[in-house]
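User: Is it possible to get a 3D structure for a protein together with its bound compound? The compound here is 1,2,3,4,5,6-hexahydroxy-cyclohexane. I've pasted both below.
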Amino acid sequence: MDFSWGRSTSPRQSVELSSPEDNTVLQPESLEGEKKEDGSHLTRTLTPSSETKFKPEDHEFTDEREDSSSELVEGFDSGVSGFIIILTFVSSISGFMFGYDTGYISSALTSIKQDLSHKTLSYGDKEILTSATSLGALISSCFAGVAADIFGRKPSIMGSNILFLVGIILQICADKYWQMAAGRLIMGFGVGIGSLVAPLFIGEIAPKTIRGRLTVINSLWLTGGQLIAYAVGAGLTHVHNGWRILIGLALIPVALQFSFFFFLPDTPRFYVMKGNTDAARRVLRRSYRNAPDYLIDAKVKELCDMNNAVEGKNVLDKVWKMTKELHVNPANFRALIIACGLQGIQQFTGWNSLMYFSGTIFETVGISNSAAVSIIVSGTNFVFTIIAFFAIDKIGRRPILLVGIFGMMVALIVCSIAFHFLGVKFNGADAVVLHTGFTAWGIVIIVFIVVFAAFYALGIGTVPWQQSELFPQNVRGVGTSYATATNWAGSLVIAATFLTMLQNITPTGTFALFAALAAVSFIFVFFLYPELSGLELEEVQSVLKDGFNIKKSKALAKKRKKQVAAAKKKVSSSEIIEEDD
Ligand SMILES: O[C@H]1[C@H](O)[C@@H](O)[C@H](O)[C@@H](O)[C@H]1O
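Assistant: Yes, that's possible. Here is the predicted structure of the complex:
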């Protein structure tokens, strides 16, 4: 994995590299000429951006920019420090739990049989068990952004671990249906907090140039968690009480994350919000070992300036002001439309209906080893998330979203037609297959569900979790809360209605509805989602200042990519010269 693009191999180069080919690239006279032990020049005068508050309206939509102190600090390390990698991996255990806990339900539903309240689960029962977690996540995600601002990112994640623990224990001991549902609900509170705070945490500790990719690591854990849940579920299908073991295994990541966080700090941004600049400095010091002290100080100051931009007597007053700012500032409001729109599209195009109920669907269409097919589907989701990891910054968010949604739409149409010819009828707990045996249409369905999974993971499964880049720091917590809540509201609706839809409007109608929603989604993305890859936070805000500016954003992103490529070239040629010397 190439984590090092856009950064240099020596401190001197990194300063020059931060804004390659810009008019604002450091001029020799702005370097103060301080020497490091190795003899290289270190310093430069601080740019205005580290001394002034950021206001989008002050920034023209231009391709000129200045090096912020963040870029300068980040430029001093070649590659990402081990400390940042550890923080990223520990916080993305939340992603794993999100995936595992939403993933195991598919096989658990087929193996619970009559273990709960001595009855066979009806479609309604299955929907309640599944959607209880989405409901819990929806409720907690409404408050998680604010909780993360009041108590901290790290305590919020550790709090989610406790909710996981309680929820999981309730489920593994359940012999009553309602105890199981309560366990799923409480576990959902934990899932909702983790789904919001982990990407926020990663976004705040990640160097800007690779923020997109580090955030996708959380999605990789997520889809990996779903895949593992399916695989373990398949292995335990015929084990007595296997579903209890399947759920109990989720305690391992919970315990690991909780213990690791005991020894790890919160984000510098949160420490600054709490006025603890010393702690912020310490975390930055560990994150960017090679950066000189004065740049670390400048970075702390930059964070303080951004924090001061949110005025208020106390935390609640600040939260209220942030919420207001989110709605009255046009750039913020556009960001909100995009963030919530993408999260809504992710859910309402139907992916999670497969995630939650693929076992039930495949069993119904006559596949004897439904668990194996479910593994192929979630494996495809995982593999294509890896592809998204490489494409998201290089190819850009817009192309992968548009291609992805279009491909999903085609796959959904084919599935809808194939279900028609397969002639299957979902009818309460017992589905009726009108044709006996497994037909060619069954194969078409499986193939196109896999195609659907691939296009989904490539774009809309991954990009919406980049949500924090849409918002400036002062409204990020509240903005991402709205977007995450939209995601869980969509997940809840799908989980609570999918099986009923199969019964009432037939599988053909259900898949056709998802295809129609995919078509509307394509239009939404085409007209409203600007290209944000490679853009600075300030630039995202100025892009959204007076419209959605799709054309201009594409041109700007292209220019930034060229600049990074040119900078890379510059580094490698200077490395060759150094080697020759
Ligand atoms: O990004 C994730 C991922 O795509 C998962 O597979 C899905 O189950 C989640 O709902 C979604 O938020």
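The pocket of 1,2,3,4,5,6-hexahydroxy-cyclohexane is lined by residues 102, 219, 222-223, 226, 346, 352, 355, 381, 461, 465, 487, 491 (CB under 6 Å). The chain has 22 helices and two strands.
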